[in-house]
Amino acid sequence: MFDLWGLGRTAPAGPAPTIHAVLRAAHVLELALDREFRGATLTPVQARAAMVLDTRRAGRTISDLAFELGTGAPAASRLLTRLERKGLVERDIGFDGREVTARLTGPGRRAWRDAAPRLERVERDVSALLESERHGDVRELHRLLEVAAELARRRGNPLRDLRAVPPLFLDGA
Fold it and tell me: Which fold is adopted by the domain 41-169?
């Protein structure tokens, strides 16, 4: 057992302390994002979607968005529906009637511009902690992501490489 972040709490005894620590860290990060986004137009998940959609003015397909978010097409479609109801996203149906492309509206781009600094603040806090002597090096996190991607490849997971990992935490490696 080891102390998680010097808080006097230890991982449960068992065969998977690293997995427990990573999942616990993900939970703590989710709580930090939720706190930072309190009162914002977008939730952290919606902000990630807006970040992906903002990279292409012409829009993204649902499957492309799902891949970038590391989720399935049905979940990405539901997320787009919520954003569309808020007037932040619009969808276009392709000429063949099958491919649907989504893009941010003007209000969607403004909501993303409001959300981006919130994500950056959490990113700075996380990076500062990871780079401190006490918490190891941010390169260790990137290596862990590489290992997770390799495990996914070996098991035939459709998330084949690090492009499926949200880019928020891959910058500056």
Answer: Arc Repressor Mutant, subunit A (1.10.10)
